[in-house]
Write a structure and sequence with these properties.
With 442 residues, this protein is mainly beta. The protein is built from six helices and 28 strands.
């Protein structure tokens, strides 16, 4: 089966953040020597529902009384939008989505005469038009305060959060999607993001997030706010930090992509030999501009019926960290999307690495990578961290980071321990999920 990939990466204005510090060199001791207090529990944890390994979305609440919405929890965007009763599109009226009605909220601040312009976000196959308004936004702990039964305990409240109320939405692709909107989790220097209003309100003691993306569609992932969740981190594996490179985005520098241990030199012609990249939980794939993808995908010859997975090469994403680079390995089971037909039990396979052209010709470090590596977003110190994740039923391999100096002119390399939206739309008879371990992958 061939999936139809929809270029849904956000073309809204990313405004971005450059925090201090956190240029920590990676060490073989990893987590114990990195500036995150693992004993610090998150203030709130939000389940991230897994939609076919393509999007991860969770619940939040708007207004008083609090009305629930589901949205893609999206580190690649600084915008929040939800469908509203003002939207006259068929998808709003008949699409089964939750609709925001400001007249029913006592804390709603409608668009004023200075802020009533209509904004537009254009996606690969559709668009959203919206106006900005303000109201109270809440996150309720999915484990301790399910369905937000209490507004006082295990709840994170953000007063006067800015968000978009839609006036028009195209049928495609929203009629296919099980969530209502987008919740932007860009850094706090992006003025409309949730983190910007969280920082302003002082709601978090630590401006820290952790994101675990499940590989099994029957299991939830988790977004933690104010701390991280060590149970999703492979024991003994090191955490590597990368300073963000631009304000308002979780932006890092990629040095190269390697296939079967061989560098492809995709960034050699870029300034400083580095490619700009965005860490984006709202994009399905690990994607590169089309010209780079032409160097990568021909080397990843995949049998659509998954017959050659044990013969496919490993792929390394090589990311700058201070004066060194970190090589993050992905095995075929990590970068191949496997689907099972519930009727025939046949498997179909597609690459989770592909082309996507976004402004600035950026590499998008999306869910293909973020399933394998737990990601930490340190807004206080302008840094993103990655450490190998551990999934249910999985035994992580021993940690064995290696470093070597290639030459005086080359950057030292540390190897991380081995083991947009881009939305695939899948026919109803298929129930996509990651296949459980196949012995020849181990």
């Amino acid at each position: 089966m061939v999936l139809e990939h929809l270029d849904m990466h956000h073309l809204d204005n990313h405004v971005v953040s450059f925090l201090k510090g956190a240029d920590a060199a990676a060490t073989a001791d990893g987590l114990d020597h990195n500036p995150v207090d693992l004993a610090s529990k998150p203030q709130v944890r939000v389940d991230m529902l897994n939609n076919n390994n393509s999007q991860y979305y969770g619940d939040f609440y708007l207004g008083n009384p609090a009305k629930p919405f589901t949205a893609v929890l999206d580190t690649g965007s600084g915008v929040i939008w939800v469908p509203s009763v003002k939207c006259n599109s068929h998808i709003c009226k008949e699409g089964g989505h939750n609709l925001f009605d400001g007249e029913k909220s006592s804390t709603y601040v409608p668009p004023d005469s200075l802020n009533d312009k209509t904004n537009a976000i254009h996606y690969g196959t559709g668009s959203v038009h919206y106006q900005m308004a303000n109201d109270t936004l809440r996150f309720c702990d999915s484990k301790l305060n399910g369905n937000c039964q209490s507004l006082d305990k295990n709840t994170l409240t953000i007063p006067n959060q800015a968000f978009g109320i839609t006036l028009h939405q195209t049928p495609e692709p929203f009629k296919w999607l099980p969530f209502d909107g987008i919740l932007g989790l860009a850094p706090s220097k992006n003025p409309a993001s949730v983190l910007a209003f969280l920082k302003k309100s002082g709601g978090l003691k630590k401006m820290l997030m952790g994101a675990y993306l499940s590989e099994d569609t029957h299991r939830t992932g988790s977004l933690s706010l104010g701390g991280i969740e060590p149970q999703y981190i492979a024991k003994g594996h090191p955490l590597y930090w990368h300073k963000t490179t631009h304000p308002g985005e979780w932006a890092v520098n990629v040095k190269d992509i390697e296939v079967d241990g061989k560098p492809l030199h995709i960034c050699d012609d870029k300034p400083g030999g580095l490619c700009p990249a965005i860490v984006d939980t709202g994009s399905s794939l690990l994607s590169t501009p089309s010209d780079m993808a032409k160097k990568i995908t021909p080397l990843l010859k995949i049998d659509k019926k998954c017959a050659n997975l044990d013969k496919m090469p490993n792929v390394n994403l090589v990311v700058q960290s201070g004066k060194q680079v970190i090589r993050y390995p992905l095995q075929p089971k990590d970068y191949v999307l496997q689907m099972v037909n519930d009727t025939t039990d046949d498997r179909d396979c597609e690459l989770g690495i592909g082309p996507m052209d976004v402004p600035g010709k950026k590499i998008v470090i999306g869910d293909t990578f973020l399933r394998r590596y737990y990601s930490i977003y340190d807004d206080d110190n302008d840094a993103v961290g990655f450490v190998r994740s551990v999934h249910a039923g999985e035994t992580a391999p021993p940690a064995h980071p290696l470093s070597s100096v290639i030459s005086e002119k080359m950057i030292p390399v540390v190897t991380a321990s081995m083991p947009a939206f881009l939305l695939p739309l899948i026919p109803a008879q298929y129930h996509p999920r990651r296949i459980k371990k196949v012995t020849h992958f181990i």
